[in-house]
Model the fold of this input.
Amino acid sequence: MDLQTWIYVFVGGTFLLYIGIAVWARASTTGEFYVAGKGVHPVANGMATAADWMSAASFISMAGLIAFKGYDASVYLMGWTGGYVLLAMLLAPYLRKFGKFTVPEFIGERYYSQTARVVAVICLIVASITYVIGQMKGVGVAFGRFLEVDFEVGVLVGMSIVFIYAVLGGMKGITYTQIAQYCVLIFAYTIPAIFISLTLTGNPVPQLGLGSELADGSGYMLAKLDTVMMDLGFKAYTVQKGTSLNMVLLTLSLMIGTAGLPHVIIRFFTVPKVRDARASAGWALVFIAILYTTAPAVGSMARLNMINTVNGVDSQGTAYTDLPSWFKRWENTGLLAWYDHNGDGKVQHAAGSAFKGKPKFVANEDGSAKRGGYEERVVSNPSDGGRKEGAPFANEIYVDRDIMVLANPEIADLPFWVIALVAAGGLAAALSTAAGLLLAISSAISHDLLKGILRPDISEKQELLAGRIAMAGAIVVAGYLGMNPPGFAAQVVALAFGLAASSIFPALMMGIFYKKMNNTGAVAGMLAGLGSTLIYIFIYKGWFFIPETNNLANTADNWVMGIQPESFGAVGALINFVVAIVVSKVTAAPPEHIQHLVEDIRVPKGAGAASSH
Amino acid sequence: MSGSASDYWKANIRLVSILLAIWFVVSYLFGIILVDVLNQIQIGGVGLGFWFAQQGSIFTFLILIFVYAKKMNALDRKFNVHED
Done:
């Protein structure tokens, strides 16, 4: 079978599986729709949480980030896993004991304030919508690359699949599909990694391969990578490039942002008991860690493989016509580009930029790609071709980071079915995260806004219908924004984490651990944390992300104490804590029944089945 | 809060404080602040600081959560606040 047939078989097969699960796991009550009837086994919930959490970015982009940033990318590895420790010990068991359906519902009741609930709903919707745009884009891109269909068609197909299982099954359908999606994505991620580790180091376990000697006898893999990179004018792979303060704050922001993201938190409402919520966070991290500890090996080995393939055995470059077919295939997708600066017909890779910004490809009049003398794609914006200090020659290629995972099986010369598996895995990662986010959005609308505030008198049947309509509406909005991403799409992930870190996490934590926290303190804290984080991000990235409205250029020299906007969530959270505590000290203590509520959620005893009110 | 309930809560806070101290040490201290010092020690072909930053901290996080779950379940029983 050829590659295209394999891809259709794998992608089509997994999609049929997801739809089959949807039909089997239909939701018939609001309890099933919002929290899967609170009957999910902790290990199963851990697996679903892992799929929910690991997005297109984790699957496709993270190893690429590691490959290009080396040691400095550790912040993502630690930041996106360490949050689960906070979730397990500070939030999940208590919120499960509280026993309701949504995060804003807890905030509203604990702070006896509809205002607090509305603020929480707004934070939740903004954070989740920004996240879901990225997933829909991921689906469109994966379809476009692998199935050679239009981006819009890809987004439409993805929307339809999510529509079927999320609208029909709610949290119940989503949970069981996510379990299937986890299995698909983890096989797709680890199988190429095992092959590559085996070829390069002789060790089939990628986590060990990272610290192993190379099979060709040229010493330890990482030491070799450091030498090769320094010879090409790059900084060493394993050496720190950013400041420690910024790395600490970025890691902390990602950790508390992770713990405060509502679509992750609500997954812990689905298990039967408080002790299940504790264990389930551990299981979630087990399943996440399988991918996250494989990623450093994938990143470093892919980088070494790529340099060796491009620069060749003599490290002087490889003739374009002699390069393996994957190079040309990915050049056709625009993720790779070459400009022959020194005119020797060879492709050379070193430090420095080969192009001014991203490469701009030239098209013929009939729309096909214009080809140069070696059949390479012609680009219109080469750089001046100067040699960067320390580099042996000018850099001649552009490599998109995302290629590291997507092209990995081809670079390592793996069979077609592995490439097809990676396509299905990327789609599974994007779809599972999108579904979880869409559920968080629809439950905030139908349960918090409609049932909780606007129309408390509607019946359960009506609320369930409203939940389905809200879900359908959210899918349409997400799909539309995925096809027409606002200019700031790339910036907003920082916003999602900043919001969750500076507003939601502190409000939840103080609600549990500080009995005397009152409504004025909590609302003031949320607004102060949110406001300061937004202002810091807007100053460098433009007000409301409108280009050219930023007050200062977004460069390290301008950042306060070297803190990049993405790292500010931790500072925002600190501001939130301080403001909330000071304000609550000078205002009236919360009423007696709220203090009893806090005492009650602190002990597991008496955690019954879910109740809607 | 009755006597045993507040003792239960204090025991809980003590446990979480210890576990979060370890959480801080392996990631922020070993993985970032002391990374250059620890990189003097090599295990296999990886500097110890680099290893903590890219793998060791994640493995430690896992152990921390399961230890927490186990110890808390024991505390629940000791103070008779467990479910069922």
About this structure: Residues 151-201 of chain A form the longest helix (51 residues).
